[in-house]
Amino acid sequence: ARGVTVVQGLGQFTSSNQIAVTADDGKVTKVGFESAIIAAGSQATKFPGLDEKTANDPRVMDSTGALALEDIPKRMLVIGGGIIGLEMGTVYDAMGTKVSVVEFMDGLVTGCDRDLVRPLQKRMSKRFESIMLSTKVAKMEAKKDGIHVSFEGDNAPEGVEVYDRVLVSIGRRPNGKNIGAENAGVAVDDRGFIAVDKQMRTNVPHIFAIGDIVGQPMLAHKATHEGKVAAEVIAGHKTEFVASVIPSVAYTDPEIAWVGVTETEAKEKGMDIDKASFPWAASGRAISIARTEGATKLIFDKKTHRLIGAGIVGINAGELLAEAVLAIEMGADAHDLGLTIHAHPTLSETVCFAAELKE
C-alpha cells in the first residue's frame, strides 16, 4: 500500500549506490539507491575456546536460540550476568527451569548502581539454583547426557556440572564488517562499528547508519529514534539526534530501570550531587500488591537542583522511569517533581515522594 518493496536475504554493498541481496536459495537481487540507511545490527559474541563439536551443539545457544526453544530445559546455565542473560534466566525460571548464572565480575548488571541491583540479586538468589559471581567457565564440553561444565573462581562448585542447555550471554558485536561497507567507501572501525554524525550520516554523505552498528548503548529504542532522524534528514528536514539521555531497562523480576547520571558515575567523576531515595516499603500500592522490595532513587545537581539521573528497581520499573526521562529532557528540578500531584495509591508517586525528600 505504501509502495515498499521488501527483498529478503543477506545484503552487501557492491558500490556506493548499489547493494546485492543473496537469498537463501542463492538467488541474487541487485538494488540501486540514492540514499541508504544501514541498520544491520549486531550478533551475539561467541564463547571462546570451544571445540567444534561443542560450539556447534544446539544445546549451547545465544539469546536468539533461547527464544526459539521448543521444550523447557530442566537445568540451564547462563554465562554472563548482564541484562540479556538475566532476562532470559527470569523467563525460564518462571517456566520451571533450574537456572544457574556464572559471572566473571563481582556483581550482576555491572553498569547499574549496586543499591538498585541488590533487590534483584536477593530475589534471584532465592529463585535460581545458583549465582556464581567472581567465577568463570574453565571448560565446557558437549556430551550425550548434557553440556558438561567446570568452573574456576571464588564461587566455583567442585567437579563438573551437567546442564540441559547453556545460554552464552557475554555481549554483542556489530555487523559492520559483514556488509561489504568497503565497496561503498563507508568507514568501519576495527570492532565493526560505523561512525556517524548527529544526522546519522556516515563518511559517505548519502549513506546513513543507525542502531547497534553505530555504537553503545545497543538498545532498540535508541535505534528507533536514530532511524526517525535519518529518515527525516533524507526527506529534506533539518533535524538531528539531540536526546539528552537514553533510558535502560532490565526486564527481570523485579525490573531495574535507570537513566542519566548514575550515583556510581557521579562519584567517579567527582560531581556535586544530591541523592534522594524512597523505599517502596513505604508505598501503599507496593504494600497492597506485596512487592515492597523496590526503591526509587533520584540524582540532582546540587547547584541547580535539576534532575540529572534516576534509578528504579521494582515491578514495572521500566514504565515508571518515563517520567524521570521526560523530567531530565525538560530540565525539571526537585520542586517541579515534588509539586506535581500524582494519583494515589500508585507506584508512580514514589517519584514525587523521592523528590519531596530532596526538598
TrEMBL record:
One of its GO terms (molecular function) is dihydrolipoyl dehydrogenase (NADH) activity. Its cofactor is FAD. Keywords: FAD, Flavoprotein, NAD, Oxidoreductase. It comes from the Eukaryota. GO terms for biological process: 2-oxoglutarate metabolic process. InterPro entries: Class-I_Pyr_Nuc-Dis_Oxidored, FAD/NAD-bd_sf, FAD/NAD-binding_dom, FAD/NAD-linked_Rdtase_dimer_sf, Pyr_nucl-diS_OxRdtase_dimer. Pfam families: Pyr_redox_2, Pyr_redox_dim. Coiled coil: none annotated. Residues 4-227 form the FAD/NAD(P)-binding domain. Residues 246-351 form the Pyridine nucleotide-disulphide oxidoreductase dimerisation domain. The keyword Flavoprotein applies. Belongs to the class-I pyridine nucleotide-disulfide oxidoreductase family. PANTHER family: DIHYDROLIPOYL DEHYDROGENASE, DISULFIDE OXIDOREDUCTASE. This is Dihydrolipoyl dehydrogenase.
